[in-house]
Amino acid sequence: MMRTHVDWLQSADELLPRVRETQPLVQCLTNSVTTNFVANALLAVGASPAMVDIPEEAGLLARSAGALLVNLGTPSGEQREAMLEAATAANDAATPWVLDPVGVGALPIRTELAQRLAGLRPTVIRGNASEIRALAGHGAGGKGVDASDEVDDARSPAVELAQSTGAVIAVSGAVDLITDGHTVVRIANGDPLFTKITGAGCALGAVIAAFAAVGDDYLAAAVAACAAYGIAGEFAAHGADRPGSFAVALLDSLSAIDGPAVVERGRLS
Amino acid sequence: MMRTHVDWLQSADELLPRVRETQPLVQCLTNSVTTNFVANALLAVGASPAMVDIPEEAGLLARSAGALLVNLGTPSGEQREAMLEAATAANDAATPWVLDPVGVGALPIRTELAQRLAGLRPTVIRGNASEIRALAGHGAGGKGVDASDEVDDARSPAVELAQSTGAVIAVSGAVDLITDGHTVVRIANGDPLFTKITGAGCALGAVIAAFAAVGDDYLAAAVAACAAYGIAGEFAAHGADRPGSFAVALLDSLSAIDGPAVVERGRLS
Amino acid sequence: MMRTHVDWLQSADELLPRVRETQPLVQCLTNSVTTNFVANALLAVGASPAMVDIPEEAGLLARSAGALLVNLGTPSGEQREAMLEAATAANDAATPWVLDPVGVGALPIRTELAQRLAGLRPTVIRGNASEIRALAGHGAGGKGVDASDEVDDARSPAVELAQSTGAVIAVSGAVDLITDGHTVVRIANGDPLFTKITGAGCALGAVIAAFAAVGDDYLAAAVAACAAYGIAGEFAAHGADRPGSFAVALLDSLSAIDGPAVVERGRLS
Question: Distance between CA atoms of C81 and C90, rounded to whole angstroms?
C-alpha cells in the first residue's frame, strides 16, 4: 500500500488523541542526564512514564507496559543488566520497544550493548545520523556528519539497519528520515533550538514509544511522533528564542498540540 | 486535645517561617528522575538539601541532619543499602524521616524494601492511595483507584498503617488525607496540574521532611506542609496553565508563599 | 607579567567567542542532582557536553575531550572508579580538567576521593570557601563560614592549595576569589539567587572547563568563566526574582552573553 503525505498526517491525527485517552504506561530505562525531561515530555504528551530501571523489576514491568524505551546515554552496570532483561521481556511479551543508541560507535561499552540490543528485535531505533550509521556498520559514530549531508548519508545505512533488525529506523536531524526498510519518509519540521537543549532526542525517543503503544503500524507511529514533536518545537520556538525558555515551552507545546495542527503544519517528503 | 482547622493552619503559620529562619539540612535519598526538582523545591521553601545517598556517608549524615527523605522511585542496589543505613541511623539518632514508597505493591524489589523501611519507625509515610493501600496490605498497588474514590478507599488502610508503624500517614490525591492513626485531616488544596509534572509527590515528601525538621508535632508538620504545598500549587496554576511553565511557577510560588496565605486559603475538613 | 583588570576582562572577550566557534567537547562526571542543568549550561554557553561516566569509557573519552569536569556531589562506587580513570587519562593526555570537590571534609568517602584526585594534577579546583579550606587541610568543611568572611578566610588555604597541587583555585561566594598561587583575583559579580537554586556551582565548574578547553592560560580562563557566569546571573536576575524562573533565565542569559558585556560589567579587584 502506497501512502500519501496526507495518510501519514491523518495517522497522527488519530494516534495523538489515542495517547491522551489511553495514557499508555511507557517504561523508560534512560540516562541520568535527561530522565526528568523525558518523564515530563511523556506526561505532557499524555502518556504515563515509569522510569523502572533495576534488574528484577525492569523485565517484569516490560511484560505489561504499553511500550518500553531503552536509551544508552549513561549505561551503568546495573542499568545494562536491566536493559537486556527489559528488552528480552518486551520481545517475549510483544511489548513495542524503542532503542536509542546514544553515542554508539564512539564508545566501547555502549557499542557492544547496542549491538546486543539491536538483536532483540526493537520496534523502533532512533538516533542521529552518525549513530545510525555506526550501528549499521558504516563509520565510527562520533560527532557526526555535517547537518546538510546527514539525511542523504544516513539513508542507505538506515534502510539496511531496518532490514537487518526488523525495526523502523528514525534518523533525527535538521530533516528527519524514517524508514521500515522499504518506505522512506522525510519530515522537515523542528527548530534549531532542539540542538541547544539536552534531551531533545531522548524525549523524542520516548514520544515515539508512546505512539507505538497505541498503534500496530509502527512506521506510521514513528512518523506521527516525529511530526508532532517537531511541530511542538516550532510552536515552542515562536515564543521562546533562548534554550532555557525553549525547554519549558516545548513541554507546554507538547501538552497543547493536537492532531489538526499536525495535519496542517506537517512537512513531509 | 481536639484541634480545630484554625489550629492546624496556625501551625503552618508558625512552621513555615521557622523553616526559612533555620534552613534545616534535609538529606534526600531519592530517585534519579526528580532529584533536581526535589532539591530545588527544598531550596525554594527555605531548607538546605543534601542529596547524600551512598553507603558509609548516608548513615553518617542522617545522624546530624535536620530530617531525612527516603524515596523509592529508582532504588539501585547501592542506594538500597544506603537507604537502610540512613533510616537505621535516623531512627537511632531521633532524626525525623519521611518514607515515600513509590510503586510499592506493583514491583517486587521496592515492595520488600518498603516493608523493611516501614519497620524502621519512619516519622511520616507519604504516598498516593494505591501505595498506602499496598503498604498496609490492602491490594497490589499499580495505577491506583479512581481519583474520586481514593480518599475514602485509603482511609482505613492509612489509619491501620499509622497504628502499625507509628508514623503519620499522608495520602496524596485530589484531596489529601493525613492521619496519625487517631485524628484524620483532609486537605482540599492543590491543582490538577500536579499530576501533569513528574516529581510533584516527591517534592511534597521533601517539603514534609523540612517541616518535620522544625517541629516535634509531626501530624501538625505534615498537615502544614501539605497545605502550604497545595496552596503554592494553586498560586502557580494561576499564571501557568501548561506543565512546563507550571513546574517553574511552582518553585517560584514555594519561595513566595507565607504563613498568612496558608491560613487564609487552607481548605481543611 | 602583571595583568590589569582590563587584561583579564579582555581575555573573556577573546575566550567566549572561541568557545562558541569551536564548541569544545566537555566530558562531565557529575552528580545525579544537577547533571541536566550542567549539560544545559554547557550547551547554552556554546560547548558540547558529554556526560560519559562509566569505567572503560570515561578514561577513553578523557584522552580526546576538550576538557573534563569531575564533580563529587553523588559519587557512586562505579562513578568513583570512572573518576579516577578519567582524571588519570586527562593528566596523561594533557586534557585540562576541573575538580569540584562537593562536600569534601564533611563526608568520608568523597574526602578520601578528593584527596586522591587532587594529586592527579587538576587544572582547576572549584569549590566554596569551606570546601577549599577542607581540601587544603584547614577545617572540616560543612556548611561553611559566614558569607561576609569567606573570601578572606579562604585566601590563604586557596593559595596553599594552588601551590601544592599546581591547580588554579576558584573559590565561589558572594565575591569569587581565583588564584594560581601567586596572583589573586577577586570577582564581585553574581546574584544572591545563585544560592537559591541547585547546581549553580556545579554549572560554573563546567563553564570553567569549557573556557579551559579553548585557552592555555588557565588562570585567565577561570577568571573569564567566573566573570561571564556571574554577569549572566545578573542579567537573569533582572527579569526573574524567584528561583524557578531564575534557573531558566540563567540558561537564557548564558546563551546570550557576549564578550563586550563581560568587559563592561566585570567587577574585578
Answer: 14
